[in-house]
Design goal:
It is built from two helices and seven strands; from the N terminus they run αβββββαββ. The protein has helices spanning 2-9, 60-73; strands spanning 16-17, 24-25, 28-31, 39-46, 52-58, 79-80, 89-90. It binds zinc ion.
Length: 91
């Protein structure tokens, strides 16, 4: 649906901050969020250092659950940041 796609595009962060080396990750792709209730959009970026960085937006509880599920299944270091890439924190 074009409208849904536009809504997702509106949440695209300018960049992600790598949780491994703190570099700017600008090669960002949307992840299909169908079936993830409360999640508006998920973005994934691959840093040159090999770390995969995620950003999710939507209902806080849903976002938290998503990152929790992710941390259960991977060795990822999770972090949060504001949309413009400032205020980066590693969880
Ligand atoms: Zn990195």
């Amino acid at each position: 649906m074009a409208q849904a796609r536009a809504k997702v595009e509106a949440t695209r962060p300018e960049k992600l901050i790598c949780n491994g080396c703190k570099a700017d990750v600008t090669d960002i792709h949307p992840v299909d969020t169908r079936g993830l209730r409360g999640i508006e959009a998920i973005w994934v970026g691959q840093c040159a250092c090999g770390q995969t960085t995620f950003a999710a937006s939507g209902e806080p509880n849903a976002v938290e659950a998503f990152f929790f599920a992710l941390s259960e299944n991977t060795e990822l270091t999770l972090g949060s940041q504001s949309k413009d890439g400032e205020n980066h924190e590693t969880a």
